[in-house]
Amino acid sequence: MTTHTPAIAPLPQRAAAIEAALQAHGLDAKTGIEQGVHNAEDVWLPERGARVVAKAWVDAAYRQRLLANGKAAVAEWGIELPPHHRHLVVLENTATVHNVICCTLCSCTAFTVIGLPPDWYKDLNYRARIVRESRSVLREMGLDLPDTMELRVWDTTADTRYMVLPHRPAHTQGWSEAQLAAIVSKDAMIGVARL
Length: 195
Ligand code: FE
Description:
Blueprint (H helix, E strand, L loop, with lengths): L10 H14 L4 H15 L2 H13 L1 H9 L1 H6 L11 E6 L4 E6 L8 H4 L4 H4 L1 H6 L4 H7 L9 E6 L4 E6 L11 H6 L3 H5 L5
Parallel strand pairs: 1-4, 2-3
């Protein structure tokens, strides 16, 4: 009987083994990986969510549709969510209410709308602390909310995804939708920044 620890193969060898196993089950790993990289780099960009936010700022009827059924309202822009994202709940920030999202279990986001989650969003530190010490965490991230501002923290689940509809800054009156979209960041749609 041997007692030594088995050596772990180098990463490329392990990746090749996984690909071979997928191919053996009739799954086209190469195409799947290329599609995933393409989606991550070219499709699932926060600019999509930013356009939705800008539209909601200038079009009251669209804002109502977005707040009533986020999934249907982003579909008007050709933005699809995976089937298991059954709901997209849009959380409206106001002058007196601030929303912030997290996934205490892992890393869930509405990534096809607001982009893939940043590394800090997946960090145990953020996930554990944002629900218990929300104001401190936001302050550390550069967002110092007044005590009078109501703060709501939303924990994402597998089937319910969130995005924050940021509060439109007062100095943007008269701006075009394109100008407005350009100031909407992924951080603002997660709720760790205000604009
Ligand atoms: Fe998650």
